[in-house]
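Bumping with the actual sequence this time:
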Amino acid sequence: MLATSYRYEQNTDRSWRQKAARAQVQKIKENAKTAERENTSRLMLKTNLAARWMEKSEDAHHSNCVKHIQKEMQHELFLARTAAISVRLFLECFIFVFAVFDVRRVSLRKQLESEMVQYSDELQRLGKAFFTQRT
């Protein structure tokens, strides 16, 4: 009986130790898997935060670029309007000056014609005429 109980204790003890060792190995494996999942989760969270930050900074950069382009377009439109006004004023002045010169030319031509008529009348009274050369 002593041998049987010793055998029983030996088998029971070993079996308990083996079960405990297996449970411990299983727990270590589970802890390693859990730690790996946590690290993966932490890495994904970090990556997502970086991606969100990059998207926000790109959006801010894009909106700043759009504002800058709009300001440039407004400035170019202002310059174009100023140039158009300058050209229009120049043309109006040119047309006015041309009209003044045209009026002056017409008045001078009338004066020349009237003087020619006076000289021809005066020459006719004297019995003379203008010399005209045939070509």
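The tokens above came from a reply further down the thread. The mean pLDDT is 86.
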